[in-house]
Amino acid sequence: MQGVGFRPFIYRLAVQNALRGFIRNTSSGVLIEVQGIPEVLENFCQSIKTESPPLAKIEAIELFTIACVAEDGFVIGDSTTGSEVETLIPPDIALCSDCHRELFDPSDRRFRYPFINCTNCGPRYTIVERLPYDRPYTSMHGFTMCPECEKEYHDPLDRRFHAQPNACPVCGPALSLHDSSGKSCNVKDAASEALLLLKSGNIVALKGLGGFHLAVNARNDEAVQRLRMRKGREAKPFAVMMRDIAVVEQFCELSEGESDAVQAAEAPIVLLKKKQIDGLAPSVSPGNDRLGVMLPYSPLHLLLFDEELDVLVMTSANFSEEPIVNENDEALLRLHGIADAFLLHNRPIYLKCDDSVTIHLSGQLRQIRRSRGYVPAPVLLRLNGPVVLGTGGELKNTITLLKGSHALMSQHIGDMKNYESYRHYQHVAAHIQHLFQATPELIVHDLHPGYMTTDWAFQQGIPVLGVQHHHAHLVSCLAENKEEGPAIGLILDGTGFGIDRTIWGGEVLIGDEAGATRFASLESMPLPGGDAAVMHPWRAALGYLSRSFSTIPDLPFLKGRNSKPVLELLQKRVGVYETSSCGRLFDAIAALSGIKGEITYEGEAAIALMQAAVGKIGTASFRYAFQQDKELWIMKVSPIVQDAVTAVQQGISVGEISRRFHRALVNCFMDIISKASEATGITTVVLSGGVFQNALLFDTLVCELQTAGLRVLSHALVPSNDGGLSLGQAVIGRSYLAGRYRGCS
Ligand code: ZN
Ligand code: ZN
Ligand code: FE
Predict the structure, then answer these.
(1) Does the 6-76 domain belong in CATH 3.30.70.80?
(2) What CATH fold (topology level) applies to the domain 175-345?
(3) Residues in the 5 Å CB sphere of ion ligand 1
(4) What is the pLDDT of residues 249-270, one digit of tens each?
(5) CA–centroid distance, residue 598 to ligand 3 (Å)
(6) How many angstroms does the Cα of residue 183 sit away from the middle of ligand 3?
(7) Within its chain, how far is the Cα of 153 from the centroid?
């Protein structure tokens, strides 16, 4: 990668060891030639492995011995322009410890400068307009370095050697504070003023690295509720930014892995278990045993905390699932009426990028939303191949471009349901192809004919291939694990277009990138109103009840609901979709047990149902059954629904209902996987799909599958939800180009 301080690091190392030679970038990697005595050379090689700058990710080191030639000192050679190495742009990286120290050192010339950075930290991906990655082609082009900054920039021994965003208060970007109407407030220190506003309960819109955030004191419940009301966000948990790791420890349980993740240079939001949340506003993350936490990752953030203010709600400034707002004028316009003040700056954000969201499960950090800090670092593939682009699906969209052995995944683009997202999508799709200088031979899209991304694929004038949604999930997981397969894929999610034109979502697919066979599926259930039922779990519950009972039992959750028109739809079979979705099964059980009948964001009912189990899965189980329909095994859901109803009628607690439900699913999946393994001899199991964000189900299944002697592949680098779809699509595309694609059957 360029701009990560690797060449100056090698330079310093060589000079320290009095080695002679050179370093330069070539099309196949970095080439270092050194001569010196063997022990010193050995130390040198060792130091490369252990002391490289944090952003330099070394994929492999190869060593050759050549004859000595006369050489003078050590030099940094010119790069071969346009080479592959040259084109890898690093992600945006959290403030490093050196810059952190300087930021708070009154004698430093960058004391309290909100844009301090160096080769080891700062913005990258979000400020690059085009290649090569050089200051004139970044959003820093409007700022001419002062002599002091210039000197640092050209000195190989300086921490800011070739740091493209290098700046200082004299020559670099500056903050400005504006009131709720957008009028500029004439203040000397905008950050200190913003801090005061936050302390007194104001909502501040602030321009960060990849877009705008809305910030509010997370200890002030009235203020947090005001933010919810103004933003139209009723219940979806807010992420918080905590001043330092000590504050995180005070509120959350923190394993070693979680502690590392929170403090990593990528600075993601980590979903941590709450420990004691006294003092935190209850409306920050209601009804959830986890809290999304990140640390300040830009110098500006650090200036918004002090002794008294230690936790801020820090939420993307967007409207529901639209992309994050990025420019000053747009922010002033669209956040008018929400923010009490605006903390702006004059360094343009070229590419919007949300905060990444992760969770530490079963011993690994797992991506839920892979964005800032990770993008555009490549996911390494098992094999080389032609350039292919995967469009992603409809929800939690990302784009993946395969180039060589790299899968270049875009940031989280969001839900492709509005024009804003579509525009952002077009921008990212064009940008990613330009940035990596690759034009796809094939574009792979989802089979769903109604997706915007499918339309987009057809408009590009490039050959296209439609692949089945859950097949793409399966291959996404194989690909990130560098596995060839075949594997038994247990794919559980909300919605995916099936080859029989029904909605799938509880599938056992066996296969690899060249094709997959549907071995088993959850029993199909009628979903009245189709997608409209997603936000109304009680309607899904009626559908599930109508198929599980001859007369619908009268349950408390139906009280006060206008169920008649829904029942009519079901009876006449008008606007009713058949679905084997696991997500909808969670919704139905959550609704009929009285946990959640209506939701305000996707997955809310399923989360509430899982929370009800309080981290335990238990031994008692609802009944389930299998039925064979020709080649396909049906995992019968109706006995589960019937038992859940009986439990409700017997007054069994929602916690116990949830535990029995989870136990039924785990047992059912264990049984079907063992059938699949017996039938095929395959012992590798892939777990993919958004339902695996359910920590209880995921942890239990992983543990029991491994105990049963099976090998489990799961997602870590790439989201298990639809954010990982584009990777699977693109990899399937390569098998198509190689003439091996059989499709899904
Ligand atoms: Zn730094
Ligand atoms: Zn300067
Ligand atoms: Fe999916």
Answers:
(1) no
(2) DHBP synthase (3.90.870)
(3) 96, 99, 118, 120-121
(4) 999 999 999 999 999 999 999 9
(5) 22
(6) 45
(7) 33
